[in-house]
Each structure stands twice: as C-alpha cells, then as structure tokens.
Amino acid sequence: MVALALGGGAAKGLAHVGVLRGLEEDGVEVAAVAGTSMGSIVGALAARGMSAGEMTAFFTAVDWARLGWIMVRSPGGGAFRDLVRETIGESPIEDLETPFAAVCCDLATGDEVVLRRGSLERAVRASSAIPGILPPVVVDGRTLVDGAMVTPVPLAAASSLSDAPVLAVNVLRPPAPGSSPKPTADRMLAAAAPAVLLNRVDGLLQRYRRRFRHRRPDLPGRLEVLMRSSHIMQYNLSRMCNRATQAIEPEVGRFDWFDFQLAGEIMDEGYRAYRERTD
C-alpha cells in the first residue's frame, strides 16, 4: 500500500499513468493520492476509480493536435474548464473512492494551498493553471495557480492523507544532452477507452469547432521559454524534497511540455521507470 505524490510536468506527467499501470500489475493498493498540475489530473482520475488501462486508452485516443489548438486559444480558459468538467466531473473531493488532494499556489502570498474538500473540477483546474497559459482560479476567496510553482512534487500533501509510505513520481528530470523522442512500436491497449468519456470530449470539440482552424498547433515560442525557465527551478526543488522519500523519476526529459501526441511513449516510459525500480 502506498500514498502517491504525483508531480507536475504538463505532457511529461502522462508518465504517471505508466507508474499506475505497474502498481496495478503488482497488486499494490493506492491508499491516497496527491497531485500537482498534471499530477492532479491523473490523480483525480485514479481517485475516481479509473484504471491505468482505461487512462492509457483514453489519452492515446484523444485528438491532441485539435484539442491543444483549442485549449491555448480559448478565451478565458473556457475550453479547459469544460474539458476538466467533462472528463473529471464536478463531484466533491470528499466523495471520491480514494482520498485525494490537489496542490495549488496562492498568487497573492506565494503560499502552498492544498485542496482536500469541495469541487473536484475546480481544484484540478486551480492546480493546473499554468501562469501565462491558463487563467487563475478563485477558491474560497484565494486566487490560485499551478501548484508546481511552490510544490513540484506534493510529498507533504500525500503524507497528510494516509499513514501509508509515500511514493513520489517526479517527471521534471532535465533531458540528456542531444536526446530526442524516439518512435516506438504500437502495442495493444490494456483496456478500451471509456466510451462515455470519449463521447464527452468529442462533444467538447464539436462545441468549439468554429474556433478551430484546421492546421497543426503552432504554440508561440514564448510559451516554451516560459515552461523551460521554470523547469530547472522546479526540478531542483523536487530533488531537495525527494531525498528522504521513495521516488521514481521517469526519463521523460527528451519530451517537450506539449508532446501530448506522444502520450503512448510517455506513459510507457513511466512504466519502464517503475519496473526498473522494482525489478
């Protein structure tokens, strides 16, 4: 039994799914899960009872090029709000099958804010509100942004949810010099993507179809600069926190922050890192 601390990292955070797959195969129960940013998205799905196989099927089935174009250009972050609502739902956190916490940063004070109760959808949006890309979320009068600004890997939050040992997953390791994504062979999915979930996302895409221009997303260079500028800072913070904790660091540095179209490869890397630690 473990309490998971899933760190932030945008597309790199899909490696969390691979770790969950390994835990399921080994019969390791997840007693609780705390997530920061992308870790809060994967963690919320896990806390709701979605299996790693279902997550794998879902994340590899989504049209990321189309969805990414919509997310970045949606006025006021409306498309991201709708996406989280359709995929994660609006249930209270306290009603989840597994204890869950989403870690955020208070934009006014710089304090860590851990959301353990209230709207799951709002908590995940707040934890994932990357400054400069997605708008802040107001919760209980506090203006909240991406939790990775203060807590890249939410160890304390995970520990507060359960007495089980904390297993941290840090996806912020910088890339090795000269590394680049390598194509891998397709593999059979462990389960079918939930049809209802995919239908909801397809409905979201249809609602935003008039705002979508049929070409590949071309994110402005400033966004990548913004993400990379905080990458090393967050990684060093997470390393200091991880010294006394079991930690898995998937080799996902070679992937870009927005490489969601490479979801299968990133999730496989998470699984490989888990197996390397346990074998």
Write the layout of secondary structure elements.
Blueprint: E1 2-6, H1 15-25, E2 30-36, H2 38-47, H3 52-61, H4 64-73, H5 78-88, E3 100-106, E4 112-115, H6 120-127, E5 137-139, E6 142-146, H7 155-161, E7 166-169, H8 195-207, H9 221-242, E8 246-248, H10 263-278
Parallel strand pairs: 1-2, 1-7, 2-3, 7-8
Antiparallel strand pairs: 3-4, 3-6, 5-6
What does this entry look like structurally?
- The chain is of the alpha/beta class.
- The protein has ten helices and eight strands.
- Strands 1, 2, 3, 4, 5, 6, 7 and 8 form an eight-stranded mixed beta sheet that branches.
- A hairpin with a 5-residue loop joins strand 3 and strand 4.
- It is globular, with a radius of gyration of 17 Å.
In short:
The chain is of the alpha/beta class and 279 residues long.
Brief descriptors of the model:
single chain, 279 residues, alpha/beta, eight-stranded mixed sheet
Instruction: Specify the oligomeric state.
Output: single chain
Global structural class: alpha/beta
N-to-C CA distance: 18 Å
The outline comes out as globular
Low-pLDDT residue spans: 181-190, 214-222
